Amino acid sequence: MSEPTPALPTALEWEQLPEPQVWVVRPPRQRWWLYGLFLLLTLFSTMVVGARLEVNFLRQLPAFSLEEDTLSLFPVGWIAGHPANLLMGLPFSLTLMCILFAHEMGHYLYARYYRVQVTPPLFIPCPYLSLFGTLGAFIRIKSPIPSRAALFDIGVAGPLAGFIPAGFALIYGLSLSRPIAGPPAPSLQLGFPLVFVLAARLLHVAAPLSALVLHPIADAAWVGMFATALNLLPAGQLDGGHIVSSILPRWHRGISLATVFALVPLGKYLWMGWFVWAVLLPLTIRHPRVPRYPDVSGRRRILAICALLVLVLTFTPAPLKNGSGRDVWREGWPSLHDWGVQEAHSLRDKVRHLQHPK
What we know:
Blueprint: H1 11-16, H2 32-58, H3 76-81, H4 90-113, E1 122-125, E2 134-138, H5 148-176, E3 178-179, H6 194-202, E4 212-213, H7 216-231, H8 239-247, H9 252-269, H10 273-280, H11 298-314, H12 325-355
Antiparallel strand pairs: 1-2, 3-4
Helix pairs in contact: 2-4, 4-5, 4-7, 5-6, 5-7, 5-8, 5-11, 7-11, 9-10
Protein backbone atom coordinates (compact mmCIF):
# COMPACT_ATOMS: atom_id res chain seq x y z
CA MET A 1 0.00 0.00 0.00
CA SER A 2 1.49 3.31 -1.09
CA GLU A 3 1.59 6.35 1.11
CA PRO A 4 -0.64 9.30 0.17
CA THR A 5 1.06 12.12 -1.68
CA PRO A 6 1.38 15.21 0.54
CA ALA A 7 -0.50 18.26 -0.61
CA LEU A 8 1.45 21.15 -2.14
CA PRO A 9 1.98 24.14 0.17
CA THR A 10 -0.40 27.03 -0.22
CA ALA A 11 0.62 30.55 -1.19
CA LEU A 12 0.55 31.61 2.48
CA GLU A 13 2.78 28.71 3.44
CA TRP A 14 5.19 29.60 0.62
CA GLU A 15 5.54 33.11 2.04
CA GLN A 16 6.29 31.72 5.49
CA LEU A 17 9.09 29.44 4.25
CA PRO A 18 12.62 30.75 4.97
CA GLU A 19 14.34 32.34 2.01
CA PRO A 20 17.20 30.28 0.61
CA GLN A 21 20.67 31.68 1.24
CA VAL A 22 22.69 32.54 -1.84
CA TRP A 23 26.45 33.10 -1.85
CA VAL A 24 27.96 35.04 -4.72
CA VAL A 25 31.60 34.11 -5.37
CA ARG A 26 33.34 37.20 -6.60
CA PRO A 27 36.62 36.88 -8.49
CA PRO A 28 39.60 38.14 -6.51
CA ARG A 29 40.70 41.68 -7.17
CA GLN A 30 43.73 41.97 -9.38
CA ARG A 31 46.60 44.10 -8.20
CA TRP A 32 46.95 45.95 -11.46
CA TRP A 33 49.54 48.32 -10.02
CA LEU A 34 51.87 45.36 -9.41
CA TYR A 35 51.54 44.07 -12.97
CA GLY A 36 52.06 47.58 -14.31
CA LEU A 37 55.15 48.07 -12.14
CA PHE A 38 56.75 44.82 -13.30
CA LEU A 39 55.90 45.72 -16.89
CA LEU A 40 57.75 49.04 -16.54
CA LEU A 41 60.71 47.41 -14.79
CA THR A 42 60.98 44.80 -17.53
CA LEU A 43 60.71 47.50 -20.18
CA PHE A 44 63.57 49.39 -18.51
CA SER A 45 65.83 46.33 -18.09
CA THR A 46 65.34 45.24 -21.70
CA MET A 47 65.97 48.80 -22.93
CA VAL A 48 69.29 48.85 -21.07
CA VAL A 49 70.30 45.57 -22.70
CA GLY A 50 68.96 46.76 -26.04
CA ALA A 51 71.05 49.94 -25.89
CA ARG A 52 74.17 47.81 -25.44
CA LEU A 53 73.15 45.60 -28.36
CA GLU A 54 72.59 48.68 -30.53
CA VAL A 55 76.05 50.07 -29.68
CA ASN A 56 77.71 46.78 -30.57
CA PHE A 57 75.71 46.60 -33.80
CA LEU A 58 76.82 50.10 -34.83
CA ARG A 59 80.42 49.13 -34.06
CA GLN A 60 79.98 45.92 -36.09
CA LEU A 61 80.73 43.76 -33.05
CA PRO A 62 78.95 40.58 -31.97
CA ALA A 63 75.96 41.10 -29.71
CA PHE A 64 77.76 39.81 -26.64
CA SER A 65 81.32 40.88 -27.38
CA LEU A 66 83.82 40.24 -24.58
CA GLU A 67 86.44 42.77 -25.66
CA GLU A 68 87.81 45.02 -22.93
CA ASP A 69 86.60 48.25 -24.53
CA THR A 70 82.98 47.10 -24.86
CA LEU A 71 80.20 47.86 -22.43
CA SER A 72 79.26 45.47 -19.65
CA LEU A 73 76.40 43.03 -20.16
CA PHE A 74 74.08 45.35 -18.22
CA PRO A 75 75.56 48.87 -18.47
CA VAL A 76 73.28 50.65 -16.05
CA GLY A 77 76.10 53.00 -15.01
CA TRP A 78 76.61 54.04 -18.62
CA ILE A 79 72.88 54.71 -18.93
CA ALA A 80 72.89 56.72 -15.70
CA GLY A 81 75.68 58.93 -17.07
CA HIS A 82 73.93 59.39 -20.44
CA PRO A 83 70.16 58.84 -19.95
CA ALA A 84 69.41 59.64 -23.62
CA ASN A 85 71.26 56.47 -24.63
CA LEU A 86 68.42 54.46 -23.12
CA LEU A 87 66.32 55.28 -26.19
CA MET A 88 68.76 53.27 -28.30
CA GLY A 89 67.33 50.15 -26.69
CA LEU A 90 63.78 50.72 -27.93
CA PRO A 91 63.98 48.53 -31.08
CA PHE A 92 65.10 45.48 -29.11
CA SER A 93 62.91 46.13 -26.09
CA LEU A 94 59.66 46.86 -27.92
CA THR A 95 60.12 43.90 -30.27
CA LEU A 96 60.79 41.48 -27.42
CA MET A 97 57.98 42.85 -25.26
CA CYS A 98 55.57 42.57 -28.20
CA ILE A 99 56.48 38.89 -28.71
CA LEU A 100 56.12 38.06 -25.01
CA PHE A 101 52.89 40.04 -24.74
CA ALA A 102 51.37 38.27 -27.75
CA HIS A 103 52.29 34.90 -26.23
CA GLU A 104 50.69 35.62 -22.88
CA MET A 105 47.63 37.31 -24.34
CA GLY A 106 46.98 34.18 -26.38
CA HIS A 107 46.67 32.28 -23.10
CA TYR A 108 44.77 35.08 -21.38
CA LEU A 109 42.11 35.66 -24.01
CA TYR A 110 41.30 31.98 -24.43
CA ALA A 111 41.13 31.56 -20.67
CA ARG A 112 38.63 34.41 -20.47
CA TYR A 113 36.71 32.89 -23.39
CA TYR A 114 36.21 29.70 -21.37
CA ARG A 115 35.41 31.72 -18.21
CA VAL A 116 38.54 30.53 -16.44
CA GLN A 117 39.85 32.88 -13.76
CA VAL A 118 43.32 33.98 -14.75
CA THR A 119 45.74 36.72 -13.77
CA PRO A 120 47.05 39.33 -16.22
CA PRO A 121 50.53 38.71 -17.67
CA LEU A 122 53.30 39.26 -15.11
CA PHE A 123 56.60 40.25 -16.72
CA ILE A 124 59.80 39.27 -14.93
CA PRO A 125 62.70 41.74 -15.05
CA CYS A 126 66.09 40.11 -14.63
CA PRO A 127 68.84 42.67 -15.21
CA TYR A 128 71.97 40.71 -14.31
CA LEU A 129 71.19 36.99 -14.38
CA SER A 130 69.71 37.09 -17.89
CA LEU A 131 71.60 38.16 -21.00
CA PHE A 132 68.45 39.81 -22.33
CA GLY A 133 67.18 41.62 -19.24
CA THR A 134 64.13 39.45 -18.59
CA LEU A 135 63.02 35.92 -17.83
CA GLY A 136 59.83 36.31 -19.84
CA ALA A 137 56.29 36.53 -18.51
CA PHE A 138 53.62 34.21 -17.18
CA ILE A 139 49.98 34.09 -16.14
CA ARG A 140 48.37 32.09 -13.32
CA ILE A 141 45.20 30.06 -13.76
CA LYS A 142 43.12 30.28 -10.58
CA SER A 143 40.06 28.15 -11.37
CA PRO A 144 39.40 24.68 -12.83
CA ILE A 145 39.61 24.20 -16.58
CA PRO A 146 36.23 22.92 -17.80
CA SER A 147 37.29 20.52 -20.56
CA ARG A 148 40.17 19.00 -22.48
CA ALA A 149 39.31 21.20 -25.44
CA ALA A 150 39.62 24.30 -23.24
CA LEU A 151 42.95 23.06 -21.88
CA PHE A 152 44.23 22.52 -25.41
CA ASP A 153 43.08 25.92 -26.68
CA ILE A 154 44.55 27.78 -23.71
CA GLY A 155 47.84 25.89 -23.99
CA VAL A 156 48.40 26.12 -27.73
CA ALA A 157 47.23 29.72 -28.19
CA GLY A 158 50.28 31.24 -26.47
CA PRO A 159 53.11 29.68 -28.53
CA LEU A 160 51.31 30.15 -31.83
CA ALA A 161 50.42 33.76 -31.01
CA GLY A 162 54.01 34.53 -30.01
CA PHE A 163 55.55 32.73 -32.99
CA ILE A 164 53.82 35.01 -35.51
CA PRO A 165 55.38 38.37 -34.41
CA ALA A 166 58.67 36.58 -33.74
CA GLY A 167 58.66 35.39 -37.38
CA PHE A 168 58.07 38.91 -38.72
CA ALA A 169 60.80 40.27 -36.43
CA LEU A 170 63.18 37.56 -37.63
CA ILE A 171 62.70 38.41 -41.31
CA TYR A 172 63.02 42.15 -40.74
CA GLY A 173 65.92 41.85 -38.29
CA LEU A 174 67.93 39.54 -40.54
CA SER A 175 67.43 41.92 -43.48
CA LEU A 176 69.12 44.65 -41.39
CA SER A 177 71.97 42.44 -40.16
CA ARG A 178 75.41 42.52 -41.77
CA PRO A 179 78.65 40.51 -41.77
CA ILE A 180 81.25 41.07 -39.08
CA ALA A 181 84.00 43.41 -40.26
CA GLY A 182 87.52 42.14 -39.62
CA PRO A 183 88.60 39.13 -37.56
CA PRO A 184 85.99 37.67 -35.20
CA ALA A 185 86.13 39.19 -31.72
CA PRO A 186 85.86 37.08 -28.55
CA SER A 187 82.21 36.84 -27.61
CA LEU A 188 79.43 34.67 -26.28
CA GLN A 189 78.27 32.94 -29.44
CA LEU A 190 74.62 32.08 -29.89
CA GLY A 191 73.38 28.90 -31.48
CA PHE A 192 70.60 29.20 -34.02
CA PRO A 193 67.40 27.21 -34.51
CA LEU A 194 66.22 25.84 -37.84
CA VAL A 195 63.89 28.79 -38.43
CA PHE A 196 66.90 31.15 -38.54
CA VAL A 197 68.60 28.96 -41.16
CA LEU A 198 65.47 28.90 -43.31
CA ALA A 199 64.98 32.66 -42.99
CA ALA A 200 68.63 33.29 -43.99
CA ARG A 201 68.14 31.16 -47.11
CA LEU A 202 64.90 32.96 -47.91
CA LEU A 203 66.70 36.32 -47.71
CA HIS A 204 69.75 34.97 -49.60
CA VAL A 205 72.12 35.83 -46.77
CA ALA A 206 75.56 34.88 -48.04
CA ALA A 207 77.48 34.89 -44.76
CA PRO A 208 77.00 32.16 -42.13
CA LEU A 209 74.77 33.13 -39.24
CA SER A 210 77.71 32.88 -36.83
CA ALA A 211 79.55 35.50 -38.93
CA LEU A 212 76.71 38.03 -38.85
CA VAL A 213 76.31 41.08 -36.65
CA LEU A 214 72.67 40.61 -35.76
CA HIS A 215 70.46 43.66 -35.60
CA PRO A 216 68.84 44.08 -32.14
CA ILE A 217 65.46 43.23 -33.68
CA ALA A 218 66.91 39.92 -34.84
CA ASP A 219 68.27 39.38 -31.32
CA ALA A 220 64.76 39.93 -29.95
CA ALA A 221 63.43 37.41 -32.49
CA TRP A 222 66.04 34.90 -31.26
CA VAL A 223 64.82 35.34 -27.68
CA GLY A 224 61.21 34.97 -28.80
CA MET A 225 61.96 31.75 -30.69
CA PHE A 226 63.90 30.36 -27.74
CA ALA A 227 61.06 31.16 -25.33
CA THR A 228 58.56 29.53 -27.71
CA ALA A 229 60.62 26.35 -27.87
CA LEU A 230 60.98 26.18 -24.09
CA ASN A 231 57.25 26.54 -23.58
CA LEU A 232 56.49 23.86 -26.17
CA LEU A 233 58.59 21.21 -24.44
CA PRO A 234 56.13 18.34 -23.84
CA ALA A 235 56.54 18.13 -20.10
CA GLY A 236 54.93 19.16 -16.84
CA GLN A 237 52.79 22.26 -16.85
CA LEU A 238 54.51 23.94 -19.79
CA ASP A 239 52.38 24.76 -22.81
CA GLY A 240 53.59 21.61 -24.50
CA GLY A 241 52.63 19.65 -21.39
CA HIS A 242 49.11 21.11 -21.58
CA ILE A 243 48.83 20.04 -25.20
CA VAL A 244 49.97 16.49 -24.42
CA SER A 245 47.68 16.27 -21.40
CA SER A 246 44.67 17.37 -23.44
CA ILE A 247 45.28 14.92 -26.30
CA LEU A 248 46.93 11.98 -24.49
CA PRO A 249 46.14 12.39 -20.77
CA ARG A 250 47.35 8.90 -19.85
CA TRP A 251 50.68 9.46 -21.59
CA HIS A 252 51.40 12.85 -20.04
CA ARG A 253 53.52 11.57 -17.16
CA GLY A 254 55.55 9.18 -19.33
CA ILE A 255 56.23 11.77 -22.02
CA SER A 256 57.20 14.33 -19.36
CA LEU A 257 59.71 11.93 -17.79
CA ALA A 258 61.11 11.04 -21.21
CA THR A 259 61.61 14.75 -21.92
CA VAL A 260 63.44 15.22 -18.62
CA PHE A 261 65.74 12.27 -19.31
CA ALA A 262 66.44 13.59 -22.82
CA LEU A 263 67.59 16.94 -21.41
CA VAL A 264 70.39 15.33 -19.37
CA PRO A 265 72.63 14.33 -22.33
CA LEU A 266 71.81 17.64 -24.01
CA GLY A 267 73.14 19.38 -20.91
CA LYS A 268 76.29 17.30 -20.92
CA TYR A 269 77.20 17.62 -24.58
CA LEU A 270 75.50 20.82 -25.82
CA TRP A 271 74.36 23.37 -23.18
CA MET A 272 74.53 22.95 -19.44
CA GLY A 273 71.41 25.08 -18.96
CA TRP A 274 69.37 21.99 -19.83
CA PHE A 275 70.44 20.57 -16.46
CA VAL A 276 68.43 23.35 -14.78
CA TRP A 277 65.32 22.44 -16.75
CA ALA A 278 65.86 18.76 -16.05
CA VAL A 279 65.64 19.64 -12.34
CA LEU A 280 62.73 22.11 -12.56
CA LEU A 281 60.38 20.13 -14.81
CA PRO A 282 59.86 17.18 -12.42
CA LEU A 283 58.61 19.67 -9.83
CA THR A 284 55.67 20.51 -12.12
CA ILE A 285 55.00 17.05 -13.54
CA ARG A 286 51.61 16.75 -11.79
CA HIS A 287 48.95 18.22 -14.02
CA PRO A 288 45.64 19.76 -12.86
CA ARG A 289 42.68 17.43 -13.26
CA VAL A 290 40.50 18.06 -16.29
CA PRO A 291 37.33 16.12 -17.22
CA ARG A 292 38.36 13.22 -19.43
CA TYR A 293 35.37 13.48 -21.74
CA PRO A 294 34.64 14.75 -24.34
CA ASP A 295 37.74 13.97 -26.37
CA VAL A 296 39.75 16.51 -28.38
CA SER A 297 38.45 16.91 -31.92
CA GLY A 298 40.36 16.28 -35.14
CA ARG A 299 40.79 19.99 -35.90
CA ARG A 300 42.69 20.46 -32.67
CA ARG A 301 44.87 17.47 -33.44
CA ILE A 302 45.94 19.25 -36.62
CA LEU A 303 46.84 22.28 -34.53
CA ALA A 304 48.86 19.98 -32.27
CA ILE A 305 50.89 18.90 -35.32
CA CYS A 306 51.42 22.58 -36.15
CA ALA A 307 52.66 23.17 -32.58
CA LEU A 308 55.07 20.24 -32.97
CA LEU A 309 56.34 21.78 -36.21
CA VAL A 310 56.88 25.10 -34.43
CA LEU A 311 58.87 23.27 -31.75
CA VAL A 312 61.10 21.70 -34.40
CA LEU A 313 61.64 25.08 -36.07
CA THR A 314 62.42 27.01 -32.88
CA PHE A 315 64.30 24.49 -30.73
CA THR A 316 68.00 25.28 -30.27
CA PRO A 317 69.96 22.30 -28.89
CA ALA A 318 72.94 24.54 -28.02
CA PRO A 319 71.70 28.11 -27.30
CA LEU A 320 75.23 29.10 -26.26
CA LYS A 321 78.18 27.52 -28.04
CA ASN A 322 80.99 26.06 -25.93
CA GLY A 323 78.64 26.03 -22.96
CA SER A 324 78.13 22.30 -22.50
CA GLY A 325 78.58 20.68 -19.13
CA ARG A 326 81.62 18.82 -20.44
CA ASP A 327 83.27 22.02 -21.70
CA VAL A 328 82.59 23.90 -18.48
CA TRP A 329 83.95 20.99 -16.45
CA ARG A 330 87.14 20.84 -18.52
CA GLU A 331 87.71 24.58 -18.21
CA GLY A 332 86.62 24.89 -14.61
CA TRP A 333 88.26 21.81 -13.10
CA PRO A 334 91.91 23.04 -13.42
CA SER A 335 90.99 26.34 -11.75
CA LEU A 336 89.04 24.53 -9.06
CA HIS A 337 91.93 22.14 -8.53
CA ASP A 338 94.48 24.97 -8.22
CA TRP A 339 92.17 26.80 -5.80
CA GLY A 340 91.83 23.64 -3.70
CA VAL A 341 95.60 23.12 -3.59
CA GLN A 342 96.16 26.72 -2.49
CA GLU A 343 93.52 26.43 0.23
CA ALA A 344 95.04 23.16 1.44
CA HIS A 345 98.51 24.73 1.68
CA SER A 346 97.06 27.76 3.47
CA LEU A 347 95.25 25.53 5.97
CA ARG A 348 98.40 23.50 6.56
CA ASP A 349 100.41 26.67 7.29
CA LYS A 350 97.74 27.83 9.76
CA VAL A 351 97.80 24.48 11.57
CA ARG A 352 101.60 24.57 11.80
CA HIS A 353 101.43 28.11 13.16
CA LEU A 354 99.01 27.02 15.85
CA GLN A 355 101.16 24.02 16.76
CA HIS A 356 104.43 25.93 16.80
CA PRO A 357 103.73 29.58 17.58
CA LYS A 358 106.69 31.93 17.63
